[in-house]
Amino acid sequence: MAKILICDDEAGLRAVIKRYALFEGHEVTEAGDGMEAVQLCRDNSYDIIIMDIMMPELDGFSAVKEIRKFTDTPVIMLSARGEEYDKVLGFELGIDDYVVKPFSSKEIMLRINAILRRVEKGKVSGTDAEGHIIFEKEGLKADMTAYKVFIDGVETDLSPKEYDLLFFLIRNKNIAVPREKIMSEVWGFDYFGDDRTLDTHIKLLRKSLGPYAHFIKTLRGLGYRFDG
After folding, report:
1. Which domains, from first to last, does the chain contain?
2. Over the stretch 165-175, which tens digit does the pLDDT of each residue have?
């Protein structure tokens, strides 16, 4: 069971999401505007936040900016608009997903559950004194909270998708992961691009990992495995 905060000024929309979330066994709290959402997040801890953009008092972008000052709780942002600018701004603020209205209840629950699964898998890794999720093997160190990767003590810069791909493989270490699952989880469940995109990113990631590229094993006809 997860604790979900739904913030939207439309009571009817909150009710629809709440109904399906409760049906799946989650606990739900509602907020009607950004100010209320920020205060609730100060006073309580949540596993995921559903945040609308256009709201009175305090818009969703401003609310997320405030919330990110004291918690990294995953955020799914809702919007009646699908402009690229809105999506880019949202992701720059640290949201985890972006959903354009109108959407089906099935879609929003799929996205909620996908994020909850990723967060849960992340908990199996070790943590440091600051609570950062850390993976270390030989000379490879990945700080999955700070999005930093070190090779033999030296930080190396990866592209955003390389970070996502590496951290996903680490969270599923020692498991044979099919290509379709990797693309679904890293690129999004509705991704329909050329699967050669995955091969290209694996090649770039291996180059970035240098002497530790061999941790990523190719499983012909299936996918990849990270030996951790």
Report:
1. 3-122 (3.40.50.2300), 126-226 (1.10.10.10)
2. 999 999 888 88
